[in-house]
Amino acid sequence: MRAALLRIGALLISLVLASVVVFVVLRLLPGDAAGATLGVGTTTDQLDQLRSELGTDQPVVTQYVQWLGQVVRGDLGTSFVSRLPVADLITQKLPITVPLSLSAFVLAVLVSVPLGVIAAVHRRGPVGVAVSAVSQLGVAVPVFWVGVLLVLVLALQARWLPAGGFPRTGWDDPAAAVRSLVLPVVTVAIAMSAVMVRYVRSATLDVLDQDYLRTARSLGYGRWHALARHGLRNAAVPVVSILGIELATSLLGAVVIENVFALPGLGTLLLDSVTSRDLPVVQALVLGLTAVVLIMNALVDLGQRAIDPRLRTAEVAA
Amino acid sequence: MTGELTTTTPVARGVEAPAAAPGRPGGARSRGARRLPPSLVVGAALVGFVALVGLVSLFWTPYALDDTGTGERLAGPSAAHWGGTDRLGRDLLSQLMTGAGNALIVAAASMLVAGVLGVAVGVLAGATRRWVDVTLLSGVDLLIAFPTLLLAMLIVTVRGASLSSAIWAIGISGSAVIARVTRVNVARVLREDYVTAAHASGTGWWGTVLRHVVPNVWPTLLVQLMLLGGGAVLAEASLSYLGLGAPPPNASWGRLLQEAQSTMLVQPWGAILPGVAIVVAVLGLNLLGDGIRERTDPNLRGDR
């Protein structure tokens, strides 16, 4: 319990640190936000007025504290470009990015966990060798290229699925919405599976070498029975840590892949804001996505402790 | 044309010869012990091939990059244009060759940034006072959790899209892993008896680091740097695909792919070949890393 509280405390500290880093890096912008918004040819009066409006004439520390206070209250500021509240912009995009990354994650787990276990059990057989080789190749393949190839073959040539875009009606037309998300989901899942299969395989291999598994076999359990009874829980400990990282990866994969498929989600919003230097949006999105990654890492640590009692006793001993 | 870029077949054939050697009884023992891991051979060959192409592209490409030639646009592979042409009639092979140089520059430069920064932080954390260690490590852990793509987007927002922005983002991001690996190994080596012995016999701090720590740590670092190089090529390709990498006239595989995407129903090679090139380079660096690890780490000899 004490360890769990410590982990949550560490999470809070890293969240604050991350917010400082994001805030400070974006304040290094040559010129300032007011100049970036108004562009060339504005008078100093206009600039001064906007500066006091934006609060950028205050010291950096004051600005940071004010901003953090607003963020905690759910106010993410206003976009320089569209003049809309950043929080609204982000909420509008969630119905695309969240289903995309969650389904990709689930699909990748469903594919890579069984494949990884099979590849480990039959490590010298044709299946094991094939899975290892394909995943070695898969790790080297850029995720956007998988998307481009799938579009080329399944959308442009076979015409089975749309090549990109999202129905204007959104989820009011569920069939069309799902159809436009199929290829993006498969793309992200393929890229993630290549990485995950390797982790599952190596975690299972570690377990297969253990004495307790050999003992179970010698007591008459079959290979799969022994593995199911004694192996999976042990193999799950490193795999859970990877699952957390991969859930974060699926979110970032979605950011890239939305741009391949022209999906109006968080990734497209982020890229547009970076290109147009829309500081409040970049700031909120980068911090938000980083926060998700940090929170996932913390949950994974807590989850590992729940699975493996040895991690709990190790703490007491220490 | 695909044969140009997928060198796996001739390389794989070359690997079989040394692999067969240790099976021979007698005489082959010393050669068997010196046998190179296949991943090292294949990885070195792939990286060597990309490096050679990149080097050649500095002095010679079949066509100039801005040469729209006979004006035949979006043509498939032909005798004159082995990779076909793009939507402006420019030679694709020439652009791919220049892209190899670009990818290697990014890989090498970000490995340098990550190496220098990471080793400095790692040695400092591993070999000095405890509070320095704790402070540096919490920063490193935050950086490890901070996704490269997001760091790159922050840097591009501030500095604009350029080759150096991409290199800094990838290098700084990668330095976190290098720092961790360095710190763990430096701390481990400093606890060894032979280091205590060296101290006792009057070797200074720098002497100990150079004579005992560096030789023990560099194979692990080399492996990490190679894997980082593979990741750097991938990251640079993603950034330039998104339009956040080096702007034209720099030829980047990611941007070539992005430009060809809208016309790929007419000329699919433009969207296929840059991807193949990325895979060859990344696979090569990854295999090279694995190979060095297998060669230098006795614990890993086996079927992992």
Q: What is the approximate shape of chain B?
A: elongated
The CATH architecture assignment of the largest domain in chain A turns out to be: Orthogonal Bundle
Question: How many structurally independent domains of chain B?
Answer: 1
Total domain modules of chain A: 2
Provide the fold topology:
The complex is a heterodimer of chains A (318) and B (304).
Chain A lengths: L1 H26 L5 H6 L5 H11 L5 H13 L13 H36 L4 H14 L3 H15 L16 H35 L2 H8 L4 H38 L5 H10 L3 H29 L1 H9 L1
Helix pairs in contact in A: 1-12, 5-6, 5-8, 5-10, 6-8, 7-8, 7-10, 8-10, 9-10, 10-11, 10-12, 11-12, 12-13
Chain B lengths: L1 H4 L2 H13 L8 H5 L4 H22 L32 H36 L2 H16 L2 H12 L3 H28 L2 H8 L4 H37 L11 H9 L7 H28 L8
Molecular structure report:
The complex is a heterodimer of chains A (318) and B (304). Chain A starts with a helix and ends with a helix. Helices cover 79% and strands 0% of the residues of chain A. Chain A is flat and about 85 Å long. The mean pLDDT of chain A is 82. Chain A has helices at residues 2-27, 33-38, 44-54, 60-72, 86-121, 126-139, 143-157, 174-208, 211-218, 223-260, 266-275, 279-307, 309-317. Chain A is mainly α. Mean pLDDT of chain B is 78; it is low at 1-32. Chain B has 304 residues and is an all-alpha fold. In chain B, helix 4 (38-59) packs across helix 5 (92-127), helix 5 packs parallel to helix 8 and helix 11 packs antiparallel against helix 12 (269-296). Chain B starts with a helix and ends in an 8-residue tail after the last helix. The radius of gyration of chain B is 23 Å and the shape is elongated. Chain B has 12 helices and no strands. Classes of the chains: A mainly alpha (318), B mainly alpha (304). The interface between A and B is large, with 50 and 41 residues.
